[in-house]
Automatic annotation (TrEMBL):
MF (Gene Ontology): ATP binding; protein kinase activity
Annotated Protein kinase domain residues: 18-283
InterPro entries noted in UniProt: Fructo-/Ketosamine-3-kinase, Kinase-like_dom_sf, Prot_kinase_dom
Annotated keywords: Kinase, Transferase
Domain of life, per lineage: Bacteria
Stated name of the protein: Protein kinase domain-containing protein
Organism: Psychroflexus sediminis
Family note: Belongs to the fructosamine kinase family.
Pfam families: Fructosamin_kin (PF03881)
Length: 283
């Protein structure tokens, strides 16, 4: 909730005068507001400080890492802090443009450019969040080790704690070294569904709400395909710029298993059966 007290604090900290505050749709975890000020507009995300510790600090670090690559547009983080019982993140406001055919070509090229940014090891500078769940990013030497230890195992344990049982998990773990290609780490968005990009005023893609890590690049593609919303031209352009490893399409379900498990642990329901079906396919 954007209280009057918090508004006053923001005005004092960021030296602007708020003319209006509009609540935006789509904030499943946080309350999101478009603040119109005399000098500039900003986006403010707000939550209770006790609910998700350091979430906005971690989101800020993820956005900053993506923005530093200059591969694709990302909102500038203006600041974050706890204030009284609330926590907030203030970002640059991005006016909207329109999607055209050139947009998808550019998106494919820029995502490929982002994925070329690499490190010696898989992981990230800190653990962060995937939606409302913790995401673990301690260093791993290989893609299969990272995916097994930092992605699948924590989600399977959470699911077990919630009463969901799975068979053949150990068999799946043993097969990962054979299935997953030995590619270097790539800087990925980490939660790239269609609700986590914008079209900026120059009709170019802009990434928001990341779950950043240096991870297998195919994970971004798998999340994109999981719920749709991306034109085929984007994949074609990506492939031309940064060709996929052999049999990449057959691995999409393997990467999607992580995101499906996240949904099992948040929503339950039909996602549970889908997760079991994916395990059955790969074992």
């Amino acid at each position: 909730m954007l209280t009057n007290d918090l508004k006053k604090h923001l005005e004092e900290r960021f030296s602007f005068t708020i003319k209006s505050a509009q609540a935006l749709r789509g904030g499943d975890i946080n309350s999101v507001f478009h603040l119109k000020a005399k000098t500039n507009d900003v986006i403010v995300k707000v939550n209770k400080a006790s609910v998700f510790p350091k979430m906005f600090q971690k989101e800020s670090n993820g956005l900053t890492a993506l923005r530093a690559t200059e591969a694709i547009d990302v909102p500038e983080v203006l600041g974050y802090a706890d204030y009284n019982s609330q926590t907030y993140l203030v970002m640059e406001y991005k006016p909207s443009g329109q999607i055209n055919q050139e947009f998808w070509e550019l998106f494919g090229q820029q995502l490929a450019d982002l994925h070329r940014k690499t490190k010696e090891a898989f992981g990230f500078m800190e653990d962060n969040y995937i939606g409302s769940l913790p995401q673990y990013n301690r260093s791993a030497a290989t893609a299969s080790e990272f995916y097994r230890e930092k992605r699948l195992k924590p989600q399977f344990q959470m699911a077990k704690d919630r009463g969901y049982e799975f068979e053949n998990i150990e068999i799946l773990y043993q097969k990962l070294d054979q299935i997953i290609p030995n590619e270097p780490p790539a800087l990925i968005h980490g939660d790239l569904w269609s609700g986590n990009f914008l079209v900026n005023s120059n009709n170019k893609p802009c990434l928001i709400d990341p779950a950043v890590a240096y991870a297998p690049r195919e994970m971004d593609l798998a999340m994109m395909k999981l719920f749709g919303g991306f034109d085929d031209l984007m994949y074609t352009t990506y492939q031309e710029s940064f060709p996929f490893e052999k049999d990449w399409e057959d691995r999409m379900g393997l990467w999607q298993l992580y995101y499906i498990l996240v949904h099992v642990n948040i929503f339950g329901g039909s996602y549970y059966k889908r997760a079991k079906d994916l395990i059955g396919y790969y074992v």
